[in-house]
Design goal:
Pfam families: Cupin_1 (PF00190). About 20% of the residues lie in helices and about 25% in strands. The protein is of the alpha+beta class. Among the domains are: about 110 residues, Jelly Rolls; about 35 residues, no CATH class. The strands form two sheets. The chain has a five-stranded antiparallel beta sheet with strand order 1-2-9-4-7, with no helix packed on it. A five-stranded antiparallel beta sheet has the order 6-5-8-3-10. β5 and β6 form a beta hairpin.
Length: about 220
Amino acid sequence: MKAIQFLIGFALLALASSLASASDPSPLQDICVAIEDPKDGVFVNGKFCKDPKLARADDFFFSGLDKPGNTANRLGVDETDANVEQIPGLNTLGISAFRIDYAPYGQRPPHIHPRASEILLVLEGTLHVGFVTSDQLNNKLIAKVLNKGDAFVFPKGLIHFQFNVGKTNAVAYSALNSQFPGEITIADAVFGANPPINPDFLAKAFQLDPKTVIDLQHKFINGN
């Protein structure tokens, strides 16, 4: 009898454990609104798959990560993406990469990848990089200066940045654990939102004068 009770208890524990660890699949785009009629569907969570028998080498290939990007912009930085948009064979594999070129003092301003962690490898130059922990950890800044051959990890969903502190160009490669990690640049999202977020609300949130907020919104919305 005790053996039967033990087996029942073990089975219930195993079932509870499996339910506790179960979760929905991670989203592969920002939003995915449910519809009643499949014929009106445009997206799945990710990309539609071609018949595997029709796959070819070019589905898993991308050329161009050896070429410098154009850093002649206000941030002095350029990214060359290698995600599922460029490499269809990455669909469902949960990986992507990109090359980042930095002009002297160029930067990738504070941003997040909502769907991925990132590991960055410096190929040339010197970068000051870091991320900020969540409110629960008191928004601690974790930062370091990286040189050629150094690597640094940015945890999923945390605000992070990179800044070329050298007087020469810098180059880095990043790998991420999502086929389409997404990117939200904090200042662009907050002050460049369309339609604009109420400036009085932002003024209180950022402890700024409303006129300063409106000025920032004009700059970011107009792309200056």
